[in-house]
Input
Amino acid sequence: MIKIYQMEVSPYCDKIRRVLNFKKQTYEVEELSAFAIKKVASIGKVPALKHNETLIQDSTQIFYYLEEKFPEPALIPENLKHRALCHFFEDWADESLYNYDIAIHFSLRENESRINAIAEHEKGWKKKFMQKMGPTFARKQINAQGVGLKPREMLLEDIERHLTSISDYLGNDSDWLVGDKITLADIAVFVQVYAINFAPQGAEIINRLPNLLSWMKRVDQTTSG
Ligand SMILES: N[C@@H](CCC(=O)N[C@@H](CS)C(=O)NCC(=O)O)C(=O)O
Output
């Protein structure tokens, strides 16, 4: 039995759901209150995944565990250079792009109602607390990381540069980021771009990039449950 402990809105949880969908594995999800994550996951982050009696934390660790347990269809290329590129894409998506998802929603204060996607899973005072304080906590996180300190214009320029780079890298002749099959790289990058697309400024950029748009549709169709 596979169970994902998640917050639905988290791109890292989306990543793991999509990996399992692609591998045709059935799973349960348990939505965690932000206040309860530590009780399940010692590192204090979701996703965590339980497979039989084994608990794994961190989406990268979870991914490699799943790739080993359920090797077909593979999401890691055989070619070593492709494998390395896949790793670089995943790490860039997880460690860089993610911060732009948080920044576009919470540095740009007109988008901070995005917090409701998290708060709707809380009850009573926790819901009110999350609605009121969630944006402040998110800003604290990206300010400490650095992206949150960038002025609005610089932030949007950065995001445009990142998204345009994905689009240009794909060109109009590549279906996938690495090699000729879907890999972890596509899923890891897609979930972050998908999250950025919820902000109107992100959607406005994405909608100007036809190669990116058609790739997003392809990844979504291939990995939806
Ligand atoms: N490197 C981790 C990052 C996971 C992560 O940052 N998860 C966020 C949700 S998107 C989280 O659990 N935040 C809760 C918190 O920081 O309290 C992974 O790949 O799983």
Observations:
- The radius of gyration is 17 Å.
